[in-house]
Amino acid sequence: MSQRYYVTTPIYYVNDDPHIGHAYTTLACDVIARFKRLDGFEVKFLTGTDEHGQKVAKSAAVAGMDPQAFTDKVSKNFRDLAGVMNYSNDDFIRTTEDRHTRACQALWRALQEKGEIYLGSYAGWYAVRDEAFYAESELKPGPGGKRIAPSGAEAEWMEEPSYFFRLSAWQERLLKFYDEHPGFILPKSRRNEVTSFVSGGLQDLSISRTTFTWGVPVPGDEAHIMYVWLDALTNYITAVGYPVIDKGEYPRFWPADLHMVGKDILRFHAVYWPAFLMAAGLQPPKRVFAHGWWTNEGQKISKSVGNIIDPIALVNTYGLDPVRYFLLREVPFGNDGDFSHAAMVNRMNGELANDYGNLAQRALSMIARNCDGKVPDPTDKLDRQTWPTLATLSNAQALIDEIRPMIDRQAFHEAIERVWAIIRDANRFVDSEAPWALKNTDVRRMEAVLYVLAEVIRHITIILQPFMPGSCGKILDQLAVPTNARDFNALNTSGHFIDENSLKPGTPLPKPEGVFPRFQEPGTEAAKGAGKGANPGGKAGKGAGKKRGKG
Ligand code: ME8
Fold this sequence. Notes:
Blueprint (H helix, E strand, L loop, with lengths): L3 E10 L6 H19 L3 E9 L3 H9 L4 H19 L5 E4 L3 H16 L3 E11 L4 E3 L5 E2 L5 E2 L5 E12 L5 H10 L4 E2 L1 H12 L5 E2 L1 E2 L15 E2 L1 H6 L1 H4 L10 H5 L4 E5 L3 H14 L8 E4 L2 E3 L2 E2 L10 H8 L1 H10 L7 E3 L1 H30 L20 H18 L3 H22 L1 H7 L1 H22 L4 H10 L46 H8 L6 H6 L7
Helix pairs in contact: 2-3, 5-6, 11-12, 11-19, 12-13, 13-15, 13-17, 14-15, 14-17, 15-17, 16-17, 17-18
Ligand ME8 binds next to strand 1, helix 1, helix 7 and strand 13.
């Protein structure tokens, strides 16, 4: 039986167009999904849109549109982003779909049957922007008798009849659950925040609303609609077929391996969601990872400041794979990060063009020139005793076993750093062996050096595919690696320098071409515009994106 992996993104509110923050979370999940597929797992990768609730209803009203028509339109922008960013999601859920209404109502009934829900009335603070209830003690005074939540959102006083979930009864069981599952919340600092929040005591949670209608009706009492977070969280089980739990995808994929979320919505995922699930007799997910927050050139990203970063503009300016690389390389995953044009160009020119691109370009063009455009033949030319630099090759072969646990704890930056250590080592190897000089002095050794380089590049590139699928695909094309030999099974982990997976000497190679261009400052507004979100076209950068790096 194959191993399985279920990874989810938050479902995004359709009150606004997608921005870099949304692109980031889904990208992280995409890298994990691709990595797991290459590692032989059967993967389900889910993303989608959160379409109900007061916030979306208000945005639809502002747009002068019927909520369904409005959500159809904005949801499509999120779906289209998958094409632009090359996401490999297997499903895209919308909470306005029938399958989701069925799942929400079934979960409600399950909670009701277990005595976890009662009817009462809510009198307290509510922030529509966060779709969250706040205790007086969490808020600061704001204008006009309103209050300000820790997120900066305005909270208003609200009084209405409401169903409640008996969250207060779950405090001890949640704490026990966190204790028994130390990997449930990552990073560790976030885990501590959650445990101290829960240790402080939990209040019953209002889970229905009566003052508007844009939501899933409460079964048996249609004057109420479900609280949008109960509705939204349920998406993760809707997508695996809930309420059918004995066949289909549910038994194969639930509990989810990973809910990836931003730190803003950790409480919903790490407190409410496991409580709802356990209360309904279902298993909680295995992990919630809360990543950090992006700022733009040092400033908080917000619509009112007008500095939203449009991921499409970034891709137009810098190219897709450099953007994918940058987002996961720039910031230790879990920390907050700042997007700046200078940092982006630095990574693009330094690490992609100079380090990786140059390694591939140098090696492949030397092979093209000096080995008749064919994979060189290293047979009888590799000798561990006389050639200690073979460590370069064995380090590349050991890479996958080092990277796997890093991906399993979502340490993307560590994985990339590790690969780059090998890339830098391989570049030093080229410099010290100087194969261009060996051409005149020791052709056998030159062939062996170039073969080692080609194998090192093959290993690195197979492993980097999840991060930069398009560019890595092009490099593997240039090494004539068949498409069915690009997964982690095709790596050489045999402990021999060469095994049946290794490149076959004599295989003809296509003409090499640079894959990672340097960013050329166009000296126009375009490059800056992408960073500021002011120039969604960013066309001038696209020209720069076509220039070839020199090897
Ligand atoms: O919260 N930096 O949806 P949402 C990094 N519908 N990530 C960011 C970000 C930034 N500046 N801004 C947004 C919701 N994000 C709910 C979720 S799930 C059952 C329901 C990302 O559209 C980050 O992942 O407000 C954050 O958690 C998410 O977008 C919030 O998206």
